[in-house]
Amino acid sequence: METLSQKFFINAFNSSKKYSDPERWICIYPAYLDSTKTLREGRKVPKDKGVKAPKTLDMYNLLKKLNFPVCRENKRYSREWSHNECTRECTLFKHGENCFGRIRVQLRNEDGTPLNPQLSTRNSILLYLGEKIPQLKSQGSSTAQQRSSKKKGK
Description:
This protein is mainly alpha-helical. It has a single domain, classed as 2-Layer Sandwich (Phenylalanyl-tRNA Synthetase, Chain B, domain 1). About 35% of the residues lie in helices and about 5% in strands. The protein contains 4 helices and 3 strands. It has helices at about 5, 55-65, 85-95, 120-154; strands at about 25-30, 70-75, 100-105. Strands 1-3-2 form a 3-stranded antiparallel β-sheet, with helices on one face. The longest helix is centred in the last third of the chain and has 32 residues, at about 120-154. The chain is globular.
């Protein structure tokens, strides 16, 4: 997974920049999708469309599959004042850097047309991620169950 610092140097936003410049890409933090957070804590989707503890790696992979230019940045969300619980959980479950950070996504072509007409806004991408991330988690848990049942049969 590429990080933005490996590929680009980000400057301050400037409206004269092209849509393909990383400064014009949207930022998505996991807190935007986290169903355990309140609106005040930064959730941007309805609770029933959110995900419990979304990971940047899941968001990155889903958007990469849709051929969006996407990068991960090692930045923390300003409304998350306490990172102790996340750090402890990441240590216990060895999530590493996939538990926090943010991703940047390019939404528009050079001429301003959407890269994907069905997902042309920040909100549509957030709702898409909220729908697809639980499916990834269920696939992962069923794969783990299959592995454990194979071991039992040996």
